[in-house]
Write a structure and sequence with these properties.
The chain is elongated, with a radius of gyration of 14 Å. The protein has 104 residues and is an alpha+beta fold. It has 3 helices and 4 strands; from the N terminus they run E-H-E-H-E-H-E. It has a 4-stranded mixed β-sheet with strand order 1-2-4-3. Helix 1 links the parallel strand 1 and strand 2. The longest helix is centred in the N-terminal third of the chain and has 11 residues.
Length: 104
């Protein structure tokens, strides 16, 4: 069964980085061609997590073969997420992507 829309807010960043390819494979199977995935991820120093940091390069490596990946926005969350500064992080960005499933 495939779907035309999905949302992942914090799902992929909760997955251990070594398990991300399996998660991405499931997304590729679940979304029909032309289907859209709204993906919300975070970027921060790799040693702070979960949620685990997920860079744009990693998103493109995981999904770029099957999805057109477009960055919709990036927001610095350090001011509203003080726990990260308290943990010693120097940056904490939330990044939103629109991923459109290509034809198989």
């Amino acid at each position: 069964m495939t779907t035309s829309r999905a949302q992942d807010r914090g799902g992929l960043v909760a997955v251990t980085p070594t398990d991300r390819p399996k998660y991405a494979a499931n997304l590729k199977e679940l979304l029909a061609p032309g289907g859209k995935l709204l993906l919300v991820a975070v970027e921060h120093e790799p040693s702070f997590g979960p949620p685990h940091s997920l860079s744009e390069a990693e998103v493109r490596a995981l999904l770029g073969d099957a999805f057109e990946v477009k960055v919709l926005g990036r927001e610095d969350k350090m001011a509203v997420e003080p726990v990260w500064k308290a943990r010693g992080a120097t940056s904490f960005d939330e990044v939103t992507y629109l991923c459109t499933r290509r034809a198989r």
